[in-house]
Amino acid sequence: MNPAQREPSWIVPVAIMSAAGLFFWAIRGTTGYGGETGGMLAGFGWGLLWWLLSRADGRERHRPYGSPWALLAIALGIAYGGFTGYGVYVGWVKGMFYLDYPHGARPISPLWGYAALFLCGLHWGGNAGVFLAWCAPEKPTRGRDWILRIISGVAGAAIVLGITKLWPQWFLPFYAEGLYQNPENKTCIRAINSLWTIAPHIGTLAGFLAYEIFRKDRRAVQVILLMAFGFAVPFAVGGIWHALGEVVPLRIDWWKNWEMSIGFGGGATIGLAYWLFNRPQPRPAWQAGPWTHRLFATGIALWFCSLPVLQGAYDGLGQIWKFEPRAAGYALLALLAALPWAIRWLKREPAVSIPYPGEQACLLLLGLIILCGYAVTMPSSFAELRLGTLVLLSLYTPCLALAAGLYFTRIRPQKS
């Protein structure tokens, strides 16, 4: 290992993360992968790639965010954002407000929709950036710091939620007319529930960011802001696909294009964060403690992240193939996901001898994510295979091939 070895151009990690992200976020939202399950698929995929890039040349211990904790931080951060949704704002982007879609349409400014989407992306990427920043603080973090940090996040969530409860008219069109209190206006009710779900996520981001500013941890603040705005912009700009669906003669799947735009832009942001903040330093940047061994060398963390990915595929296939997922099926998936780690434990392999997680394990898990994505994309019969699905497959495959090709030709051969 040579800590002074030259890093690849910034284009390489950005291209890898964005090309793979196009696929990850396109699957997020596909059959079976709604909400936090789809968020985990995308976050876990990006986290695995981050760890592979960090350790490919043997310099992971010299990189500030080169520990496997960064893998878990990205996975959990993106999954956390999945507890919110943004489908209710698609009508707003077109300048239409519905009382009960598709009924009761009213014209509004499209800026309402773009602003709401911007905030969705802001917290989605920002909180992932918060979790990532925690993996490599510039200043030592003690128990008191963690207590104050958590208090700041909880207080931020409570304050922002309280603001939306007290003054919802600031965030919801036509609120003063009492539309949101009428149970028949289901889309209005969905909008106010979405607001109250998103508000705590915005609040945690604000609280955690405020504490890092207070601590004067410059790198943490930069990571959080880059991730926040790097996701917010493609979230909002991607909404233009909806408007294009009205003016472009070719019928396009604007929603899937929107999702792919988010994945491409969000992945580019993660790749840029990697290049800016995870360069190797002359001295080791972190040490592997006992918790690292327990969570990663034993496979517990990867097993935990794999479960939602398998669950989403099982649920999605159930909808496609018209069968009801059963508890026994979920239990079997959990056992299958734990099987590799159980075999390792039975062989009594010492944790200290295991490069956690190894390249082979990461590539297998990435293969699992890709396999699950293709499984929920394909219909139950070739007779149902539509042109739109073929177009998606024709985009997915070269993008994944590009990411794999760049990794094996521009990253991995540099290992010494």
- The count of helical stretches stands at 15
Helix share of residues? 55-70%
Task: Characterize the main sheet.
Answer: 2 strands, antiparallel
Q: What is the number of beta strands? A: 2
> What is the ordering of alpha helices and beta strands?
HHHHEEHHHHHHHHHHH
**Shape type:** globular
N-to-C CA distance: 6 Å
Describe this structure in words.
The mean pLDDT is 90. Helix content is 67%, strand content 2%. It has a two-stranded antiparallel sheet. It has helices at 11-27, 35-55, 68-81, 90-93, 111-133, 143-166, 186-215, 218-237, 240-247, 254-277, 290-297, 300-321, 327-346, 359-377, 387-411, and strands spanning 96-100, 103-107. Helix 3 packs antiparallel against helix 5, helix 5 (111-133) packs across helix 7 (186-215) and helix 6 (143-166) runs antiparallel to helix 7. The longest helix has 30 residues, at 186-215. It is mainly alpha-helical. It has one domain.
